[in-house]
Amino acid sequence: MPMPLSSSLVPRLEWLERTGSTNADLVAWASGPAAADWPDLSVVATDDQTEGRGRLGRVWIAPPGRTLAVSVLVRPAPATVAPAVIGLLPLISGVAMTSVVRELVRPEDGDRPATGMKWPNDVLIGGRKVAGILGEALPDGRGAVIGAGLNLTLSDDELPTPVSTSLALEGVDELSTDAVLAAYLRELATRYHDLVAAGGDAERSGLLAAARELSATLGRRVRVELPDGAVREGTAVALDALGRLEVEETGGGRLIVSAGDITHLRHNDS
Predict the structure, then answer these.
(1) Over the stretch 41-94, which tens digit does the pLDDT of each residue have?
(2) Nearest Cα to 30, choosing from 142, 126, 110?
(3) What is the C-alpha separation between 135 and 112, in angstroms, rounded?
């Protein structure tokens, strides 16, 4: 497959015929001897990733040509805004990918399921996951790589989990990998530049407003599995200025979640 035309949207785009992990590749290249050749918003992408990973070390594997894996390097400038921007990268990427998927999966006849973002950045169609996001810091701490994996044309028997889906399964008949990649890069770059211009302020940049509007989590009862193994339940009520999830716990009090695994609960779940 030739390099997608999306390379015109970013300073550098490398399309790989096959690779283990676009995130691993980009982290290595952007922190290696030729790091200067990889400017801010450089991209590595493929439709054949063999060793992709998700949060908590989960494996993301798919047949060749059925998914899109794309990793974007971010080195924010000025350095004063870098920590805030890097911390919000997963939210930026989730908002960008959810916006793209929502445009593709339009309820033209009223019976297509809703598209939304499960905090912090899983993209859902009718409650089923179509895309996931994973960020990794560069070894020097002055930048990060944000990776996204999107299920394009997977069939039912090729899905990684029973709660996954693909664009094709949701009625998107005509799929151009390049068009999807271009739309995602355009959305992500716009959100990123807006956040940098706002000095890393997610509220002022419009990022939080977009995340709230796209959220499939706010207002839902959720189970939160925290990094230390603790499990809490409550209702997701807000996103704070740092993009963290605020949960009103069932037993009282408010939990601020900066990292953790979120499960949407039905009313009769416990």
Answers:
(1) 999 999 999 876 655 455 656 688 999 999 999 999 888 899 999 999 999 999
(2) 142
(3) 30
Task: Judge whether 81 and 196 are in contact, CB under 8 Å.
Answer: yes
Q: Is the dihedral of CA 152, 177, 59, 144 positive or negative?
A: negative
Long-range contacts at 57-64 (CB < 8 A, ≥ 24 apart)? 59/160, 60/132, 60/149, 60/160, 61/160, 62/151, 62/154, 62/158, 62/160, 63/154, 63/158, 64/18
Average pLDDT of the chain to the nearest whole number: 90
Strands 231-239, 245-249: parallel, antiparallel or unpaired by DSSP? antiparallel
Q: Are 144 and 138 in contact (CB under 8 A)?
A: yes
